[in-house]
Design brief:
MerR-type_HTH_dom (chains A, B), homodimer, 6 helices, MerR_fam (chains A, B), mainly alpha, 135 residues, DNA-binding
Chain lengths: 135, 135
Amino acid sequence: MANLTITEVSKKYNIKPDTLRYYERIGLIPKVPRQSNGNRYYNEGLQGWIEMIVCLRHSDVPVEKLVDYAEMLNQGDSTLDAREELLKEQLAELEQRKSNLNRSIKRLKHKISLYDSGEIKKGKSYFEEYKIMDD
Amino acid sequence: MANLTITEVSKKYNIKPDTLRYYERIGLIPKVPRQSNGNRYYNEGLQGWIEMIVCLRHSDVPVEKLVDYAEMLNQGDSTLDAREELLKEQLAELEQRKSNLNRSIKRLKHKISLYDSGEIKKGKSYFEEYKIMDD
DNA sequence: TCTTGACCTTGAGTTAACTCCAAGTAGTAC
DNA sequence: GTACTACTTGGAGTTAACTCAAGGTCAAGA
């Protein structure tokens, strides 16, 4: 795992260079070290952090929360408790999201089964379809 | 289950009246019937449809997709296959989302356990913390 | 009669998270 | 020296999904 340029990181994590620069600008990623020509290079630590960000962003953890976390990291040990608290809040949020998701998945599967079984047929209106859709 | 006014529906599904009117404007909800004074009233069928929308929106199914579905409903039986297809696509999308979510949840839980066990201690930098965070 | 409150309309404003643009530089290839 | 490519910057533009504001109608109650 070596130092990578911005495009290499961009490919590795499937995220645009512009987004990486944007994350840096807003303080989600700390000052990235530069080569003599001014180009960024991303070391192991940064890559790990970016992987974490990308993972959590795929679950729509707000950028703002991640920035808060990053800022607390910079402030050192005085923020240990607050950091853990933030992680726990986000976890709770994701668990909630998961239960919503399960409800939606169940609903969609049910509805698809109605299409498959032919129970939803010609000319149904919103109202008529609803009668069937509402389990 | 009787006819409800816009604020009643708004309370029932925890969604703002403005949002309900917005949904109607963009064709996600069909023309809502009016009382003599011009006020909307929502009948059973509409309420069922709104419940469906709210459920799927909690899982971030795009409004645009729901509008597509609503428009196809209006077009009748010729769109049966396309409607089922749309539902299947959204289902696949949600399943994907769920697996992302599980990954994030696992990650957060792991990280929290590191805080709890005291393995993340004073003065860790991004880099140092990453070493621990990366399982 | 006056006021309050719930509703209406059109159209504009907001927010999050990118995403793109123009103009410039640094390094390599011929 | 002239392309060509990969980067740099600051700032503007985009998109989705609301969300609000201004001004108007109407019915019920003091």
